[in-house]
Input
Amino acid sequence: MKTRNYYFDNAKFILIFFVVFGHFLTSFIEDNETIYTIYKVIYTFHMPAFILVSGFFTKGFYQKGYVQKITKKLIFPYLIFQIIYSVFYYFLYDQSEITLNPFNPQWSLWFLISLFCWNLMLLFFAKYKAVISITVSLAIGLLAGYADWVSNYLSLSRTLVFFPFFLLGYYLKKEYIYSLFKIRFRLLALAVFVIVFTGFYFYPDISYKWLLGSNSYEELGATSVAAIFKRLGFYLLSVLMVVSVMGFIPRKQYFFTNLGKNTLYIYLLHGFFVKVFRESQIQNYFKNPEHFILLAAISLLLTLLLSDKVTISFTQPLIELKLSQLKLLKARVVSMIKFYRKKFQSR
Output
């Protein structure tokens, strides 16, 4: 029997926590330099690493029915949540009408479209050696910034900009990851974190938008040839940070390990809580720096709750188009009712 690799489940859970925490921090980046710095540090690695891990697990894409499989897994939930978020925004922002546009991803839903496209692009890029494929994808990502039409439409900008990380994950071997667990490397990785944090803190004018992958060079205020080198610098920075983070991911099983299998649920559902938080008065309480540890704890609690079996039972029909968990929950509830009824009648 094949033993499940706890490392990657741990990695997915930890990375999705940083995604949730990073989205909560967005409300405060203009109020506090330290928070703005932490925010940018998180954004250097959380999505690039998450995308890399997704690429690592992309196997069997040449098998018959693979496109249909990923369409069901990614596009159907995308369309469903496009509608749900549109209705949600209608009430949350008191809009005059419900706007439905399947070609313009609502907020975090861009990842589903991009992940679908990356899988399709892999059918072509995987035919070539890693060096060639990654180099070409990197060139595309660098040049895409000059095209203003490469935008949020069908998540095209992020798809092209982040594709090199997906390819890196696809070509990544476990042996490379295991070599990161040495004490010497971890000390070096810790130094990288300190240097990057210090750099962002003392040079706050470095815009976080370079890390989002969703803006053209013109929108970023850099239309010269130098823009390519700036984005290339951010590519290198993200790779360095991703490698550093991966060296600290634990390999043993913990209470959260199995929850790493449920990151899609967390990703799709946490947005409702974040959006309500941003529109509420509650966020005013967290403007004091000493309260951000509490915000991190809330992010962790939300991550745990959204990956819980009960949450999955009720949301699985929307996300995986399945009823198995809901049926299992119903069976357990019925069994529990029968047990206590029998116990009560025996008295």
Q: What stands out?
A: The two ends are 46 Å apart (CA to CA). DSSP finds 13 helices and no strands in the chain. The chain has a mean pLDDT of 90.
